[in-house]
Amino acid sequence: MNARLYDVAIIGGGLVGLATAQALLARRRSLIVLEAEPRLALHQSGRNSGVIHSGLYYRPGSLKARTCVEGRQALYRFLEEQHIPYERCGKLVIATSERELPILADLQRRGHLNGLQGLRWLRAEEIPEYEPHARGLAALWVPETGITDFALVAQALARVIGECGGEVRTSARAFRIHRLGREIILETTAGDVRCRVLVGCAGLQADRVARLCGLHPELRIIPFRGDYHELVPERRFLVKNLIYPVPDPEVPFLGVHLTRRLDGRVEAGPNAALALKREGYTRWSLSARDIGEMIAFPGFWRLIARYGRTGLREMALSFSRRAFARALERLVPEIRAQDLRPAPSGVRAQAVDPSGRLVDDFHILEAECMVHVLNAPSPAATAALRIGQIIAARALGHLEGE
């Protein structure tokens, strides 16, 4: 075998994999990024709401909290350097019931502990100053939140990687991985690759890539489809920037919200409906393999038992535009079902443990000469540059420990 030997091979050309590659190249390491699809950012990295998260929601001290705040600052610098369009537009998180007020107060406390500046508690009569058509009992104004196009971020990272001597290879799906002495051999649809250290950042396929490497992670990826609608053009005036509900603290999803995009469109969503295919973006997308793996995993049935009622509510949002509109009416009472039209969906790679618990934080598994990111939930796009540095440091530890 005469294929080039790389210091590091990264499986997955999404934002986290590309950011990891950029961080490794800063340490002058030879590397290749292997992306299974013909183009970058076809899945989670390019099918998201485009929101640059502030760090409001996350438990202080958690990896998500630290990487979101640090990653947001790094992302804004990167956007400036690469001349990628963005706006620091801020967002409102609105409480619409008495039950949500203490949760909103806890979010304000978390935001302060996570270092957010400029958080402001709004009384009901102050909400229209920020969003004239929104209503609620109280709200938090979060000025650090912004919007961008993360597909452009992925393209810019790939460009930087190429300029720094790295390689990004698309249409390169790994189907066999094995060791040969101190090397790792990856057999892919674009040819064999040899490396000293392997990093898995495979998103929706993260657990399968780990198993392909001979590991046995307890976690399984369960896909959740996020359906979106958008406001018809003549009703976009109802939303200035970003309007969010108070999230349910029992589940790691933010609830259906309203997001202005850079091009002026206003998206509504996503819900979090169980998907029957890991890369299935319609209600009718099915994969026998994906369904079979889910039902064979005990954690799946415990997940259903724990969140069944919530799951049915989220599924209803997928099948009923009226139900979707009712969820939005809580935030902007003037929205009606006829104001909405379908928009492209996304699928979230959600790790679930054997007890049926939705894994809420980033989860990284290490083995000999390997680092696998098994859970990279929101705010992974915002935090990518920082989480990439952390993964790169772990990969370097394996290189230096040889």
Describe the protein.
There is one protein chain. The protein is α+β, with helices and mostly antiparallel strands. It folds into 3 domains: 5-45 and 151-219 and 360-400, FAD/NAD(P)-binding domain; 91-143, no CATH class; 221-358, D-Amino Acid Oxidase, Chain A, domain 2, CATH 3.30.9. It contains 10 helices and 20 strands. Strands 5, 6, 7, 13, 14, 15, 16, 17 and 18 form a 9-stranded mixed beta sheet that branches. Strands 1, 2, 9, 10, 11, 12, 19 and 20 form an 8-stranded mixed beta sheet that branches. A 3-stranded antiparallel beta sheet has the order 3-8-4. A hairpin with a 2-residue loop joins β19 (363-367) and β20 (370-375). α1 crosses α10. The radius of gyration is 21 Å and the shape is globular. It starts with a strand and ends with a helix. The mean pLDDT is 94.
**Would you identify the CATH H-level superfamily of the largest domain?**
FAD/NAD(P)-binding domain
CATH topology of the largest domain: FAD/NAD(P)-binding domain
Strand content: 25-35%
Shape-level CATH architecture of the largest domain? 3-Layer(bba) Sandwich
- The amount of helix comes to 25-40%
Essential attributes:
402 residues, alpha+beta, FAD/NAD(P)-binding domain, nine-stranded mixed β-sheet, eight-stranded mixed β-sheet, 10 helices
Give a short summary of the structure.
With 402 residues, the protein is α+β, with helices and mostly antiparallel strands. The protein is built from ten helices and 20 strands.
Q: Could you outline the blueprint of secondary structure elements for this entry?
A:
Layout: E1 5-11, H1 15-25, E2 31-34, E3 51-52, H2 63-82, E4 86-87, E5 91-95, H3 101-113, E6 120-123, H4 127-130, E7 138-142, E8 146-148, H5 150-163, E9 167-169, E10 174-180, E11 183-188, E12 191-200, H6 206-212, E13 220-231, E14 242-245, E15 257-260, E16 266-269, E17 273-274, H7 288-296, H8 298-319, H9 321-329, E18 340-352, E19 363-367, E20 370-375, H10 380-400
